[in-house]
Amino acid sequence: MELIKDVSNELDLDVLCHKILVNVSLLTHADRGSLFLARGLPDNRYLIAKLFDVTVNTKLEEAVEKAKAEEIRIPFGVGVAGSAALCKQVVNISHAYEDPRFNPEIDQRTGYKTSLLLCVPICNYEGDVIGVAQIINKTDGSDAFTERDIEVFQRYLTFCGIGIQNAQLFEMSVQEFRRNQILLNLARNIFTEQNNLECLVTKIMTEARELLKCERCAVFLLDSECGEAGHLERILERPGKAIEAHKPLMRRESNNVDIADVLSFKFDFKSIHFTKLFEMRDGSHMSEESNPQHQPHRKLNQIAKYVAATGQILNIGDVQSWFGVTDGNPDSQEESEEEQEIKCILCMPILNGQKTVIGVAQLINKETGQPFTDCDVSIFEAFAIFCGLGIHNTQMYESACKLMAKQKVALECLSYHATASLDDTLRLINDEIPSVETYNLYSFKFIDFDLTDDDTCRATIRMFLQCNLVQQFHIPYEVLCRWVLSVKKNYRPVKYHNWRHALNVAQTMFAMLKTGKMERFMTDLEILGLLVACLCHDLDHRGTNNAFQTKTESPLAILYTTSTMEHHHFDQCVMILNSDGNNIFQALSTEDYRTVMKIVENSILSTDLAMYFKKKSLFMELVENGEFDWQSESKKEILCGILMTACDVGAIAKPWEVQHKMAKLVADEFFDQGDLEKLQLNQQPMAMMDRERKDELPKMQVGFIDLICLPLYKVLSETFPWIQPLYEGTMENRRHWQDLAEKVEMGLTWIDHDVIEKPVEEFSSDLDAKDIEFTVTTLNCVHSLEKRTPERIADGDSMSLVSASTVLGHGRNGGGTRFASLRKSKAFGKTVRERFSRSLYQQAQAQAQSSGSGLGQAASPSKEHMSESVSNQDSLFSQTSSSTRSTDKLAAASAAIPEDEEKPHETKPPPKAKSKICRII
Q1: Rg, Å, the chain Cα set
Q2: What is the C-alpha separation between 415 and 409, in angstroms, rounded?
Q3: Strands 251-252 vs 312-316: parallel, antiparallel or unpaired
Q4: Which among 396, 394, 360 is positioned nearest to 380, based on CA atoms?
Q5: Numbered residues of the known binding site for Zn(2+)
Q6: Catalytic site residues?
Q7: pLDDT for 19-70, tens place per residue?
Q8: Residue 100: phi, psi to the nearest 5?
Q9: What pTM, to 2 d.p., does this model score?
Q10: What Cα–Cα distance (Å) separates residue 766 from each residue in 769, 866, 876?
């Protein structure tokens, strides 16, 4: 019991095994003993001598050193100890040399003669063999181990098995803790060293040597690009080529792999290209080979290529027998001499996070002289994972640094080309800047059509001068001029979202601040930020919206997942400000610079209508709550965002001539995007971008005004009454768009011409009569055939009274604008023609009944009578804001009626209910 208590409290496995052997020898009067521990997988288990030939007088240190000096490995079922382990039975031999299981080689090596032998298996609580204890010869002169010896031995080993298992678990936990600490320290070192690959690999190899106690360590790094040749191959590679599936990774090879299998491995090793080889020897010396393809250790290189190609682990315990004899090449003599020192190799692939091989690590020779164990392999696997992540991160960091350098060079080039030239800047500096009144900048009805490109820049400068921003923030005048020209230069020549649009948005903001008296709610710094944001809010616009960028998976959509184009506009704004000689904020303090840049960013992002709908609800809530104080940061941000949207859609409140032209430019830009969606994406675009549905645009304009513009301007004008002109202009334009939408419903079109609203009454009366053609025929009434002319008889009895086809000139006042409400065929729509015929027929019947004789018997009407008849009816064209014919033209048309016709009675037909759509002669 004292012995059991002694071993049960011992957790050091070496000490425990030594105590067990000493105590067993005392209990059984044995001369010496050995203790073997079981190792290996269930299908390949073996015994390793933990302590060998220990006597009662053998010291612990002596026994441990003796066991480390020579490893004795016995497979299960081999020898006396192996048989006891396999059969789980006691083996008691009285004459060792007569038993075939006994191996006399050990006696021959040690000079000790074994006579008696007793082996007892040690089992855990589950009944599995965890070791074998063996005692040899008796010291009391007995010729055999008695049953009493066996009983004491077995009972004692039962408790010893529990102690051994506890000690093994404790040892495993200590090893696991130590390994975790090493890996944690490795990870800490790896992820703090990101900017230098050589330093990182040095740390990795140092940690590897400390962790696995090896003499040499080498790291091969793969070239993922495979040099220039690989780059050319990828360029010439056809799209759609099948990608070869990755082979299974991390599959262990046995310790007895034949080198012929490696050398004869069928793989295109040309695709395996190592960029660098790092090698460490003797703990401190680290060499770097930039071209490892020509390193002297060709076979080691071949092994590394094999591991890189297959993703498998090679653990070679006996390198000399594995390498074999040299190939007889004189050049390989040096290689053979150095490789003779290699005893064992552990070669493992290094993987990144995507399970792709990025390198190979080789460990050569353990300090103990023993092969690498399965435990070493397991530890090195975990180690290799951290190595892979560290190397991959460092490579990505180096690549990012190169890309940043390339980007810097590209930005320098772009900055040179995107920045205004010195000549343009000097010319603008020396130009005289006209007054605000010259450009009508205070008005919400500002029009830029008559301004030259130089005038647009001067007008922009004038707004900055008028707001006193140049003096207030010490902006160098030369820098301001260059910045304005650079901003103008960075707008693409798209149809609508161009520099002119930016100028109009900035002018609307300027008018809001001055005429709309919004400057009383803003600080000077906020006014500066708002004007800059307006001028830069659509920089580098491509004529396509955010949805198109997402659909086409453009680089911009990859960079910015929300408000794609708006983020790009802000980035372009920052790029221009960071260009040499363009930073108009250079005199600001750090705090003011941070504030104004935040204003610019929030204002530009607010031009995304998706952001507008979010801020609109917050703004409406503040207004409904009677908010009058807009000075807090959150409220000011909402107010600035609402003002930016109001300025961005400000063209909807311009005079009708401007609004109509702007709407056509927007429509053309949308149609271009729709065409791209059809061609590139093979998708049907939405209605507002479908060129085939262009006649629906008036209706969609009305919807846009009702959804966004009117609610926005209404609440702004109610909150800030000085912005009322924007609301009134929008209402006026809505009436025009509604009128055009009704024309479209009638079958007319609106977008074919530049001028739509020109009523017929406004055409001059001196227009030649040939511009209007009438064909006058009789209805199917009772007529005197003898009074018909041959020409009219030939025309038939059933014909319409009037078929009008208007062919106006191409400009106002004789040779002016074509009639805008007609189709290109210059004919009325089917619906209109049917209503013409029905109305005319009813009119003619009423006149025939009142005259009592019919049109066929009437005399030829006079010009005055025709004019009177016309004046009593509301024309179709006057009801639809189109041109009505003048009396002189109708008189000319009436001349087509034969003079011998009888004049109809002057009695007027009963008035008919008026229709909004059409009235006719």
Answers
A1: 50
A2: 10
A3: parallel
A4: 360
A5: 501, 537-538, 648
A6: 497
A7: 888 888 888 888 888 888 888 877 788 888 888 888 888 888 888 888 777 7
A8: -65, -20
A9: 0.52
A10: 9, 19, 22
